[in-house]
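pls design
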């Protein structure tokens, strides 16, 4: 439970809060155009050419022994950079439909497939819909601990969690594999809710994607190096690990800092637009660090703005954050931001602390005491 005080809003204030945040979205949506298209095409080019440069340097180091070490290191760094940019600033944002308005078939959210072992189709279900609709709602948002970690005291403790400091490190190294099997809900097998044969059949699309990625990174490209197969294979492996760890750090900093909150299921009953924004705000954390950090995180350094506006091009988030922060201040709502070391330090503390039994603080209601005049579900854009 967050120790930060958020002022309780009246029904009228809550309505106005939602209206002001909707207005920010409308202004930016109306002004989308050539500069946004140019930006994402530059990211596509950066992904392509850093990838080509990285793989070329890995081969160069393999065949020209005098530059083996520096070329191999530079190749790994550039290939990892390419994979990070593709994963975070390109694929994640495109799959959200942020660039559907361009009409470019290669940048359509419903058809884009990314460069990890998980399928984009599963991600659209587990992330775009489930996580963004039910952000930090216990029992509905599977991203709370990903079924492996106890990060909030409201999660029931089991002896298994004593191992979670070790589990968390392994999960970071293999993050793309955890994401790949998330929608399979392997725990159902242990609970005998599904048979192994059924689970194997359900996993067919994921198995095919895993095989494709394994062949590309660990067979095809290393084989092109002939007798120097191993250095290229190890370079590809390390680039993937770097991408996995970076993605893990960014995502965990966006959701599991000290001031981030989780919510009971009943908080979304008759949830208004203003309530939805409030829940997104209190379950999210930003990272302060400037333009380079924004690009390297896929602009998830602005996780609050991403949860508010998942279908708006992420290169707009820095500008939107100025207005969002001012609105939050006017309504007495904490805008959770901090440096990467500070935010990740809080995440690490949560992982260590809640590996052991702990009791949750008394639940503070998310919603105002008096109901809004016209209750209803949050508009569908929240699940974009």
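designed seq:
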């Amino acid at each position: 439970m967050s120790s930060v005080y958020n002022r309780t809003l009246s029904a009228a204030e809550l309505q106005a809060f939602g209206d002001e945040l909707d207005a920010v979205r409308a202004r930016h949506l109306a002004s989308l155009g050539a500069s946004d298209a140019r930006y994402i095409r530059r990211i596509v080019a950066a992904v392509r050419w850093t990838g080509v440069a990285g793989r070329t340097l890995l081969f160069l180091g393999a065949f020209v022994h005098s530059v083996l070490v520096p070329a191999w290191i530079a190749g790994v760094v550039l290939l990892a950079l390419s994979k990070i940019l593709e994963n975070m600033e390109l694929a994640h944002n495109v799959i959200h439909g942020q660039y559907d308005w361009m009409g470019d078939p290669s940048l359509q959210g419903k058809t884009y497939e990314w460069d990890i072992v998980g399928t984009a189709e599963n991600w659209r279900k587990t992330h775009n819909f489930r996580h963004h609709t039910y952000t930090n709602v216990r029992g509905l948002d599977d991203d709370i601990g990903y079924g492996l970690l106890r990060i909030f005291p409201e999660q029931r403790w089991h002896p298994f969690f004593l191992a979670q400091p070790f589990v968390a490190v392994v999960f970071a190294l293999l993050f793309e594999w955890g994401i790949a099997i998330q929608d399979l809900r392997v725990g159902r097998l242990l609970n005998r809710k599904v048979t192994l044969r059924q689970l194997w059949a359900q996993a067919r699309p994921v198995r095919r994607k895993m095989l494709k990625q394994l062949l590309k990174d660990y067979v095809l490209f290393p084989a092109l190096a002939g007798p120097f197969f191993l250095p290229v294979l190890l370079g590809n492996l390390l680039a993937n690990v770097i991408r996995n760890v970076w993605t893990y750090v960014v995502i965990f900093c966006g959701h599991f800092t000290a001031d981030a909150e989780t919510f009971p299921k009943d908080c979304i009953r008759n949830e208004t637009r203003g309530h939805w924004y409030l829940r997104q705000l209190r379950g999210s954390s930003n990272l302060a660090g400037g333009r380079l950090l924004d690009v390297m995180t896929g602009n998830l350094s602005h996780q609050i703005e991403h949860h508010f506006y998942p279908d708006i091009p992420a290169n707009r988030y820095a500008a939107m954050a100025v207005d969002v922060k001012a609105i939050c201040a006017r309504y007495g709502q904490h805008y959770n931001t901090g440096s990467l070391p500070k935010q990740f330090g809080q995440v690490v503390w949560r992982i260590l602390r809640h590996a052991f039994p702990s009791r949750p603080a008394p639940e503070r209601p998310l919603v105002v005491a008096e109901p809004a005049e016209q209750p209803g579900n949050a508009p569908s854009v929240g699940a974009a």
